[in-house]
Amino acid sequence: MHAVFLKGSPPAGRDPLSNRAAAAVMAATKARGWEVRSFALAGMDIGPCRGCFSCWLKTPGRCVIADDQEAVLAAAAGCARFIWLTPVTFGGYSPELKKSLDRIIPILLPFFTKVRGETHHPLRYPPFRRRLLVVGTRREDDVEGEKAFLRLVGRNALNMGDAEASAVVFSGDVSLADMERRLGEEPFFAEAAR
Questions:
Q1: What is the pLDDT of residue 192?
Q2: What value does the mean pLDDT take over residues 140-147?
Q3: How many CB atoms lie within 10 A of CB 193?
Q4: What pTM did the predictor assign?
Q5: Which terminus of the chain has fewer CB atoms gathered within 10 Å of its CB, N or C?
Q6: Domain boundaries 2-193, corresponding CATH code
């Protein structure tokens, strides 16, 4: 099994909760024998999307910005399983993760298709169906922020070819063991264990 893990948390050591969540994700993937390509986005040179759409029109499937996002995009193109880790910021993703996700549009085509009655872009590299697990972290509980976060994950899943998505948010002083147990119960991992 192969997965791409985008760690949108601050550099190691700055956010103990995100560090524990990353360790729990890696433990869950290792327990299943998965090959995981992991990217610590905070330490990478990834510029913001220019909105030029060259990746659709001039260099199909490739971003014209030459930086560390090229490796992320290459891994994402052929990957059926994504794991994103992010501190939940006002119900959204961290700047590091958001910047990388904005630059991942080359895996989509510039055409339109209907998905659940809505207009979206089809995948450039079918025929597999993607699965997505988004792990959020918060210092303290925020019910409204978590609702917005879960809705955002669902919307991003639609934009990724109607990917099967699940999300979990860890807050406070949750232990590594509790994180590992909760991740082990996620459909993202349970489905693949069959």
A1: 47
A2: 91
A3: 9
A4: 0.93
A5: C
A6: 3.40.50.360
